[in-house]
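Lab channel / #folding
Pinned by the channel admin:
"Please post every new chain as: sequence first, then the structure tokens as a reply. Keep commentary short and put observations after the output so the thread stays searchable."

First post following the new format, from NK:
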Amino acid sequence: MIAPELHWEEDQAARHALWRSESEAPPPKRVVVADDRITADQAYRLACEGTGLLWRGDYQNARQLLQAMTRRVDKRPRKPADTLLAAFNQHRMAQAQRARILGMLLIPFDAGHGIPLRRAPDARLACEQAYGPADAPYVASLRELLGLIGAYEWRRKGVEIPALGGDRIHPHYGVFSPVRGEYVDLVAQAPLPAGDTAFDIGVGTGVLSAVLARRGLARVIATDQDARALACARENLERLGLTNRVELVQADLFPPGRAPLVVCNPPWLPARPSSPVEYAVYDPDSRMLRGFLDGLAAHLTPGGEGWLILSDLAEHLGLRSRDDLLDMIARAGLRVVDRIDTRPRHGRAADASDPLHAARSREVTSLWRLAAA
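Reply from TO:
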């Protein structure tokens, strides 16, 4: 695959550089060189027009400019929505437009991920972890760079997991972080079926595999099709001393064979992601959910259980009904043994200013215990 390039004119000469975007945003077609003399109003107007601003000034001034542009984006009035589904679609459109506008402030990078700007941070390790090696100069958005730096800090510090006795899980960039601990607690508390083996479908950071192993299962086979997730899980399991009990397999959904316990925490919202890193949250047409349910019975040993961890936020938003979910379960030849519910503890559930507050405030996360019908 040929890497995209950014083209612009500077010092009366045509210039170009490689373009990097984890969100797969295309490079701006029009680019102007900008520095500390540009005003926030000028920058905001150009960005709204789709013009990229290649920064040549002070790095910290660029950060302040991005904050000023963000305030202007967030002041845009929103029309009231008649339904939660309409509010969700409006919110998604607004978020996509916000990302496009703020993504127009661009930062140059040298080979090796150095940033050739005054007062620029040393972000080489953060960029290396997300992008891999950089053998040539390139350009990326400042907004994305700040996301990489934030993800690097999360990875360095880790997330404390009470279900692991306070041990930490260190999420990699692009891998869903277990900051919402209620779903982890459900897996830590649900009664285990008889047997010493489990499958963990969609391993992510490896947190659920670690919880299952700590609960006494002798063997956990964990799958994921994302190489980043597998690398992240491998690193976490090594840190926790669990590599002898958890086997990682690159696969779309199930590994070969059967197990008395098969666990899956699929993306909770059946909508189209706007970038690759959103696949941990959005599951187009419930593809992973349907695939898990449809293949579950064939991968359970007699008397085994499948644990589906799922929020009902999609139901409150009108994206999927409870009857739809129950119909998927029945059509897959499964029955519900039990359902264990918990309320989310994250801050957005109590944030009345959130445009989706009416749905988030009623959200319930459930562990569905399923068996072959």
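NK: The chain has a mean pLDDT of 94.
TO: also worth noting, Residues 84-102 form the longest helix (19 residues).
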